[in-house]
Every structure is written in structure tokens, then in C-alpha cells.
Amino acid sequence: MRRLVKRKGESGRYAARHARKAERMRMPVTKGDTVRVMRGEDSGKEGKVIRVFPKTGRVTVEGINIVKRHRKARRAEEQSQILEMPAPIHHSNVMLLDPKSGAPTRVRRRIDDDGTKERIAVKSGDAIPRTR
Description:
Layout: H1 13-21, E1 34-37, E2 46-53, E3 58-61, E4 66-71, E5 81-86, E6 89-90, E7 94-97, E8 104-105, E9 107-111, E10 117-121, E11 127-128
């Protein structure tokens, strides 16, 4: 039997591909934030972020980008149905809402004296609390 000299994840093209796939995008929004959609079909609508996908840079917002999924009955007593559910959109198409005015704002990061990171709304300068 042939002995494996190098394992797949150690070096070479496999390691480079894994590093590329494992990259995560830095996003200003997190789960639980209230955002406004700035681009696309649902522009102007607001909603709460349900889920964040850091590898693809997408977020799912409740009530935004609603798609229909046809679900087949799995058992005899179950009925087939058409489900409506929100699909993910790219994080660049949404903006976080300012806690003071409720207007969309960009986000800055500030490191406090005790070393904790804090998100700051650019428009008002107020801290944006984390809601998880």
C-alpha cells in the first residue's frame, strides 16, 4: 500500500484554496441590528437582521427579498405548499440605522480605555449597542 507523504491541508494548492474559502468579510451589521435597504427592489424598507453569512458577505433581513419555495409533502398526511421566506442580500445594500435619529448611517469602530471595541454611528457620534 502506498504511504501518504503529504496530507492535503498542510501545504501546496490545497492550503491556498482552504485559506481563500475560509476568509470572512468584515461587516458593519450583526444579528439583531435594524437596517434600511438602500438598493434593489425593496429599497427604502426597514427590517431586523435575522442571520449573517460572513463567508459570502450576505445578510438575511426579515420581510426583505421574499422568495417562494415549493415544498413537497413528505408524508401521506402532509400537504404540499408554497412557502414564502426571506432570502439573503449583500451587506453593501443595507445601512445600519442611527440610534438617535433613525436615519441610515455609516459605522466607525472605537476601542475604549478598557480595550473593548464599540461601534459608533458617523452621523450622530452615538454608540450603537450590540443586540444578539
